[in-house]
Amino acid sequence: MALGFLSGNALRLDGLIERLESAEGLEDLQILIEELRDSYGVDHIVYHWVNSNGEQYGCGTYDLEWVNRYVEKGYLRVDPVVVGCYQRFHPVDWKRLDWSGKAARALMQDAIAYGIGNQGFSIPLRGPNGQFALFSLSHNCNDTEWEDFTVTNRRDLILIAHYFNQKALEFEPGRTPEASQSLSPREIEAMTLLAVGYSRAQAADTLSISEHTLRVYVESARHKLGALNTTHAVARALSRGVIVV
Amino acid sequence: MALGFLSGNALRLDGLIERLESAEGLEDLQILIEELRDSYGVDHIVYHWVNSNGEQYGCGTYDLEWVNRYVEKGYLRVDPVVVGCYQRFHPVDWKRLDWSGKAARALMQDAIAYGIGNQGFSIPLRGPNGQFALFSLSHNCNDTEWEDFTVTNRRDLILIAHYFNQKALEFEPGRTPEASQSLSPREIEAMTLLAVGYSRAQAADTLSISEHTLRVYVESARHKLGALNTTHAVARALSRGVIVV
DNA sequence: CGCCCCCTCGCTATTTCTGGGGAGGAAGAT
DNA sequence: ATCTTCCTCCCCAGAAATAGCGAGGGGGCG
């Protein structure tokens, strides 16, 4: 086994990241991830985008069979890797997660049956608009070997995961932020106050204007944002970064 | 000027990250960030945590005077660096941001007057519960020099920023107080539907439940999120990454 | 000089949300 | 076996938001 032979090889990392940066589609990422797996000598590497709706998207070296089973069984919602990474910032060794749940243990057994490997290491990735993805490596070996591998390659892997996600964000299907008209300063102030819980009356008072005037701002902002109601407008403004709360 | 003399020095990076990992408080981070500034030979480095309540927190080498002015003037809400990074995943050169707004230009002039530097480079950082932070470098030099510096040190800086944020998350003041209250699946569904513009009646219909039941979810979610009304609750849920639109 | 956008204010009527209250069943955790 | 959490449903009165109609002054731009 060539676990981590790449370690410390700065040139190789540079080359990899360059190739990552010049990738032009999911197919390129798929090719790269397979090469990456071979270079690191691990069983599997997966980049896995978890949408809020439960939709999934990504690439990796898992068997299609396993991926389908994972989706069918709705493992996403009980997978300690996903849940654990969702609550953490730093990369995690799968061993350190909470596998005590019934569903979790069933998943683990199932995963091993599909040849996923007893060891794993996942890096949480977060982008704008609540994007959340995972970059995971899994392997079959003992604890010491895995510990050595993760300690040695941790930094490189963080970087690779970062560049991987950067690319994946570019390829995201259907994320076309319609050219929204920009809000006027007053509109932004009004929306911001509503977003922090003020009622229209309170917001108007805070801005020292009549409630009616404030309403005009909110209505105007709502139309500009193409929103159906105030709550929707605030949500859109937040998602688009028009206001910051 | 020793801009970027550290570049390519893997040993130095290793040492730095080790020291970062052994930091035990914000004071240590402050010391480290000052050393980092000297090592890189840039004018300023700042780690800046933007809390979902609009509170700010962090450390850096800016003058206290400027920091106070920034907060007082509410520059956070108009700063193209913050807004721009909020919508991006990859690090950004300040030059590439949109400085066309009136407030933005006023901010820039003000910043230069306080000796911030005409060049800048910021790395967006995102953690659990919608945490958002910035790791920024700023300097006074011409475009070419800055370009060289950022291209050379980009990867190291990403790593440093990552470890910096990891540490800062550990030191977060009110880390577990109310953030732990997680929403139930139904509550998340309800909030998500409201966030995309559904009225309560529509949302209830979509979920095939009575409007009353939906209301219970929304109320429950509102209490868990410590929100004053529905709009506020949706805003908080979005900011914390509990729901995604 | 118009034109357009921004800021400010007023009125009415209808619909929707808010904030309490209570109640029962199902599932999982201790 | 009990306890908690979640899901589901119901009532009511008052507060708030929405949709539509207005008006006028100020500033920038061609």
From TrEMBL, chains A, B:
An example of a GO molecular function for this protein is: DNA binding
Pfam families under this entry? Autoind_bind (PF03472), GerE (PF00196)
Keywords, in A-Z order = DNA-binding, Transcription, Transcription regulation
Q: Which InterPro entries match?
A: Sig_transdc_resp-reg_C-effctor, TF_LuxR_autoind-bd_dom, TF_LuxR_autoind-bd_dom_sf, Tscrpt_reg_LuxR_C, WH-like_DNA-bd_sf
- Extract the CDD domains matched here: LuxR_C_like (cd06170)
Please report the stretch or stretches of sequence annotated as the HTH luxR-type domain: 176-241
Can you tell which superkingdom this protein's organism belongs to? Bacteria
PROSITE patterns per UniProt: HTH_LUXR_2
Which GO biological process annotations does it have?
regulation of DNA-templated transcription
Its name, as the record gives it, is: DNA-binding response regulator, NarL/FixJ family, contains REC and HTH domains
Q: Which organism is it from?
A: Antarctobacter heliothermus
